[in-house]
Amino acid sequence: xxxxxxxxxxxxxxxxxxxxxxxxxxxxxxxxxxxxxxxxxxxxxxxxxxxxxxxxxxxxxxxxxxxxxxxxxxxxxxxxxxxxxxxxxxxxxxxxxxxxxxxxxxxxxxxxxxxxxxxxxxxxxxxxxxxxxxxxxxxxxxxxxxxxxxxxxxxxxxxxxxxxxxxxxxxxxxxxxxxxxxxxxxxxxxxxxxxxxxxxxxxxxxxxxxxxxxxxxxxxxxxxxxxxxxxxxxxxxxxxxxxxxxxxxxxxxxxxxxxxxxxxxxxxxxxxxxxxxxxxxxxxxxxxxxxxxxxxxxxxxxxxxxxxxxxxxxxxxxxxxxxxxxxxx
Length: 329
Known about the structure:
- The protein is α/β, with parallel strands linked by helices.
- The chain has a domain at 2-173 and 220-252 and 290-308: Rossmann fold.
- The protein has helices spanning 10-21, 57-62, 84-105, 138-155, 186-197, 222-236, 257-267, 296-300, 310-322, and strands at residues 2-5, 28-32, 50-53, 69-72, 109-114, 164-169, 171-173, 200-203, 216-217, 219-221, 245-249, 255-256, 274-277.
- Strands 3-2-1-4-5-6-11 form a seven-stranded parallel β-sheet, sandwiched between helices. A two-stranded parallel ribbon has the order 7-10. A two-stranded parallel ribbon has the order 8-13.
- Helix 4 links the parallel strand 5 and strand 6.
- The protein is globular.
């Protein structure tokens, strides 16, 4: 069986979708801590054998010896989370426990890191090294801390899972993100704001040299993110698994929020209309103006599939999900 933590979340549920629909696997154990009243709907189209609350997982693992792999997507993912004790418990200690369990039981382990570990990007976005990064918020630091902890296990030649990888997800957008509210993608917010008000609000260019709406991100479609995880999972079950390591998951091409919002409105067959607003105080000084994943390491590890263009990803998301009566994948 394959355990997916955070399996009722956006990326976790889409990994389950990929395993169900592309690989024909339904031997899934989904774990999560559902907080939003509608988040359960991320699971209604999935085939799996068991759902567990995240607090039940540890006891269940000790009673089962037929786990094929653990895909650890569960975390507090809000970049505005202020209680660092919660981040330590959920994003660091919980992850360390699962790593140790996989090590002891010789089970492959794949986990979610984040592009938030790169901070403002002063050191670039190269996954060849995680040294000297300076995250801008507690969430990013909690992910960076675990990455560092993992690499210390490697450097110390400590016991570790037989196959493992961490994934620095860049700006993921797509179906099943509806429970994320403020933390949902700009694509989702554009669709809803434009539908309700006839315009989309984007931040003004508050940094020198940045025009309104021209903050740049590496936007990656969630179906592509799920495909990367599935590739490493499949390879881990062979005699020559993909190399262990921490990998960027993006497209390698930065695009503007203006491009993204325009694509959403165009996919709705509407004339784009954007209004520019000041950045909220709680984001000032903690905001990434540019992200662009270096993708060579992932390619060298054997992942050859092309990534969906922003235009094609947005069109699929809007027309096949957001505009449908049932938007869940």
